[in-house]
Structure formats: C-alpha cells, structure tokens
Design brief:
The chain has two helices and no strands. By secondary structure, the protein is mostly helical. Helix 1 runs antiparallel to helix 2.
Amino acid sequence: MYQFNDQLTKTTTQFADVAANVNRLALENAQKAFGLQLATIEQNTAAAFAFWGELTNVRDFDGLKEVLPKGAQIARATTERSMGTMQEVIANTVKTNEAIGSLAKGQFEAATAEAKAQVENVTKAASKAAK
C-alpha cells in the first residue's frame, strides 16, 4: 500500500513540475507577444500622428499632392510592420508549442517506462510466488 502511495506522490509531483513548466512557457510567450504587438502599435501610432501633423499644415491642393504619397508610404510601412510582428508572434508561438510538446512527450515516456518497470517487478514477484 505504501509503495502505491509513494508512486502516486512521485507521479503527482512530476506532473505538477511539468504543468508548472508548461505554464511558465505559455506565460513567457504571451508576454513576448504582447510586448511585440504593443511596440508595433506604438510605432504605427507615432507614424500616423506624424502624418496627420503634416496633413494639418497643408493649405492648398499642391501641398496635398506632396503629402499624399507620404501617407501611402506610411500606410505601407505600417502594414509591413504589423505583418512582420504577426509572423514573429506566430513563430514564437510555434516554438513554445514545440517546447510544451517535448515536455509532455518526456512526461509520457517517463510514465510509460516507470509503468513497464512496475509490471516487470510484479511479474517477477508473481512468478517467484508461483514456484
């Protein structure tokens, strides 16, 4: 009975350690993603307000013709920056999921090896008792 309790305690501790590592990895990934997205929003907002500042100084149609290409360029840069950030966030998430998967795989392999060892021990004990 005590052997079962010890095994259950050990398995539960291992599971808790793996769960804590999974949570840590997921939280780090969320922090990175939030930081990247916040920095991108900050850059995009600064570029937009700078353009609006230039646009408010336009007084005639010729001035508008000069400013509009800058607006298109800013919109393009903003879109590219946002897409780059999204790709980086996705890449980080994939790496995090791979790390979580390897932790889970290691946990399952360890549990399987331990279960096989227990079965072998019980089988040996049963065969000795049968003799």
